[in-house]
Amino acid sequence: MIMMKKKTWALLCVSALVCAIAAMSALVIAIDPFQVYRLATLYMPPIDNTTQVYSNAGIARHYEYDSAIVGTSVTENFRPTQMDEVLGGRFIKLCTSAGTAYNHALLMQLAFDTHEMKRIVYGLDVYSFIGRLDQTGSDVPLYLYDDNLLNDTSYWLNRSVLGSFLPRCLRAWGQTQDDSIRDTMYCWAGQDDYGPVALYNAVFARPDTALAPDARVEIAQQNLHAHLIPFIEAHPETQFDIFFPPYSAAEWSTMLSKGTLEAMLTLRGVCYDALCAYPNVRIYDFSAREEWVLDLYNYKDTLHYGQWINDAITECIAAGDGLVGDRSRLDSATDQLRSWANALIDAGGWIF
Questions:
Q1: pLDDT reported for residue 20
Q2: Rounded to whole angstroms, what are the CA distances from 268 to 19, 61, 76?
């Protein structure tokens, strides 16, 4: 009798546990905070810079678009509604702060798997191509980016989803998203000061040692051939507008101070050579746009520029302004970046 009671109690406990797990999983699936299974229509989904690697999976799958802006934090302030008007199509942001080429590939794969893509505007940060092939900018829940339903248990039983994001969705019940979310998602415009404060992370000193110019060529080529070129080759119907973003001149002097300048400048040519021959690729270079990169009031730090620069880049791409027609034009801009970096180092500070 006592043994029977113990077995019954054990079965009841196991049953209760199974029911609790099933109930929690069903709740996550039904509400689906990160829109993994369907577009949110009854609440405002938790889309911000802290949820980006989770939110991106649902955005890439379920939002309506035929074009995308892909890149790191310097692409987060683009306005898809402006891009619709100026470039044509319907744009969405597929951005990852501090993203690597692998981050970008994960999102492009979802986009091409679920949408007919007309255009990709791709911000080519040289920093994104120097990591390992499997390196991401931050931990990515890869189980949300595949089609394997079984590993979604990591989503259904996620402590943060259950404890933070489900309640957040419930508090936002009735606050439905409209088309403006395409512009506001991940946007940090207006949150920072611009001007001389941008130099807080700048360095103006000669390095003791420096990387060889070809130190990062091999890994960059591997990233290009693993995470960008396959999409270009597989989708000749899709226009790829690839641009080198306009870091401030102080970013290049900081690279020089760290001994990485020549290695990073070399990657500009490596990327151009690998991409320029494809008929569905246009390459733009805004890195030496003097009126932008020599004006600190365009920057919140040495790397990140204000939204007005993103708007201007969109206009430039539409007009063909900044298009790199041959390698000599890119090399000329590279020489200018090197010259500015050396001038700042020689001066020991900002001189422009």
A1: 61
A2: 56, 32, 22
What's the one-letter identity of residue 95?
C
Task: Tell me the two tokens of residue 224.
Answer: 């290009």
Q: pLDDT tens digits, residue range 3-27?
A: 556 666 556 666 665 666 666 777 7
User: What are the start-end ranges of the E strands in the chain?
Assistant: 67-71, 91-95, 119-123, 239-244, 281-285
Q: Contact at 8 Å (CB) between 47 and 94?
A: no
DSSP labels, 200-218: GG---S--SS---TTTTHH
Instruction: Read off φ and ψ for residue 285, nearest 5 degrees.
Output: -125, 115
Distance separating alpha carbons of residues 94 and 87, to the nearest angstrom: 17
> Cβ(261)–Cβ(252) under 8 Å?
yes
**Beta-sheet strand order (sheet of 119-123):** 91-95, 67-71, 119-123, 239-244, 281-285
Q: Residue 93: beta bridge partners?
A: 69
- Residues 202-246 have pLDDT tens digits of 999 999 899 999 999 999 999 999 999 999 999 999 999 999 999
CA 209 to chain centre: 31
DSSP, res 64: -
Provide the CB-side half-sphere exposure for 44 (13 A, CA): 15
Task: Give the C-alpha separation, 33 to 95, whole Å.
Answer: 19
Task: Specify whether the CB–CB gap between 75 and 69 falls below 8 A.
Answer: yes
Residue 56: CB atoms within 10 Å: 27
Give residue 30's pLDDT.
81
Residues in contact with 66: Cβ distance below 8 Å, sequence separation at least 6, in sequence order: 89, 90, 115, 116, 117, 118, 119
Q: Would strands 119-123 and 281-285 be described as parallel, antiparallel, or unpaired?
A: unpaired
Residue 2 pLDDT > 60: no
